[in-house]
Amino acid sequence: MFLKKVFNTILLLGITSATLAIPPSTLRVAVIGSEAIRTTIDTPNYKKAYVDGFTVAIDKFKKENIKIDLKYFNYGSNPLNIFKAVDAAKQWDPSLIVGPKNSNEFLLIKQSFKHTLVISTFANAFSLKQLPDNYYTLTPKESRFAATSANYLLKKYPKKGAFIIVERGCRSCIDFSNAFSATYLKAKRPSATHYFLSSNITQLDPQGLLNGYQKGDIIVLSSTANNAFILIVELLSTLNYPITFIGDDNWGVKIAAQVNKIPALRNNFTALRFSTWSLDGKSLLLKQFKRNYMIVFHQGPAYTISFANYKIIASVIAALKRNHALHPGLISAKSVEESYLKAREKSPHWFQEDSVSVFKTHGDQTENYMTAIKVL
């Protein structure tokens, strides 16, 4: 009996050693992005958060014998340099491309990869419907997001009109404003839309921009983060009475809270920011991410971009597992693309965010989570 136990123990150790010796499945990930992110607000912290999401994914899936081989291909502040980054990424022969977050730049590369899966975290302009099947985004289309946000505001402010200020040249900003105003029109509620050019932001005439604004209207700022900050400061200084600002995903994180740090403007406005991404959700994947983030960094995440980048990797691994495509050695781009397309056939919104979170800033220097609404 004793010898039998010893033999079984040796056999078990042999099997365990053999299992541990199995080479990992390797997912080669090329990240094509811009270094010009959050250039005036919270830049160092945001850049770190961008990388942190991948770091957590690498650590988590290493425990499942899956190696994430990651390489960055940055194109700086000039979007046209993106093609140099694309060429460099192609030479590396990746299994997966993490594409630009920005809709404009994501669209620029829509013909660059024929048989490699390309995923963006935040790109969601309406024109993305024209992308090839191997291009995908984890954020719901801007039209669905805007209609969901507008319906919430119609109920919250039933007697107020909407004055919409839109940044030209920002595809997702224009898509958001179009869908938002269409929702107000359908509800037979007043709305007006004005446009501005980002290149003229420092020379803007606030009075001219506010032509047609009625006191009491909510002001919807459909613009990128830095311009939203400038507009809020200028409009508050011009009108000099309490205003309710509405912002979308393009605002980024904590823009209104930054304005609140200016003593003369504090307590003179309320800002509601709508976002398809939040760290306050209840999904199992988010809980898993937070737990693993804590293991790696010994503190909780501060930016949704960390979760978004983690989620890209998790969505690909889940598709590969569903299609039984994980095997020792390098996972081919073909396996990744085919697995993901099959997953999307059964679940068209595979791993996409399915709710809109509402955040409020008023009277202090923080942005507070209010509620989440199911995407229409």
Q: Which terms would index this structure?
A:
376 residues, alpha/beta, Rossmann fold, 2 domains, seven-stranded mixed sheet, 12 helices
The overall pLDDT average reads 88
The CATH topology name of the largest domain reads Rossmann fold
CATH class category name of the largest domain? Alpha Beta
Rg, Cα atoms, Å? 23 Å
What structural class do the secondary elements suggest? alpha/beta
**End-to-end separation:** 66 Å
The strand order across the widest sheet is 7-6-8-9-10-12-13
Order of helices and strands: HEHEHEHEEHEHEHEHEHEHHEHEE
The tally of strands reads: 13
Biggest beta-sheet profile: 7 strands, mixed
Uncertain segments: 15-19, 36-40
Share of helical residues: 40-55%
Number of domains: 2
| Morphology call | elongated
CATH architecture of the largest domain: 3-Layer(aba) Sandwich
CATH superfamily of the largest domain: Response regulator
Number of helices: 12
Can you describe this structure?
Strand 6, helix 6 (171-186) and strand 7 (191-197) form a beta-alpha-beta unit. Helix 5 (142-156) packs across helix 6 (171-186). The radius of gyration is 23 Å and the shape is elongated. Residues 15-19 and 36-40 have low confidence and may be disordered. A 7-stranded mixed sheet has the order 7-6-8-9-10-12-13, sandwiched between helices. Strands 1, 2, 3, 4, 5 and 11 form a 6-stranded parallel sheet that branches. The chain starts with a helix and ends with a strand. The chain folds into 2 domains: 23-140 and 281-346, Rossmann fold; 143-269, Rossmann fold (3-Layer(aba) Sandwich). The chain is of the alpha/beta class. It has 12 helices and 13 strands. Helix content is 42%, strand content 20%.
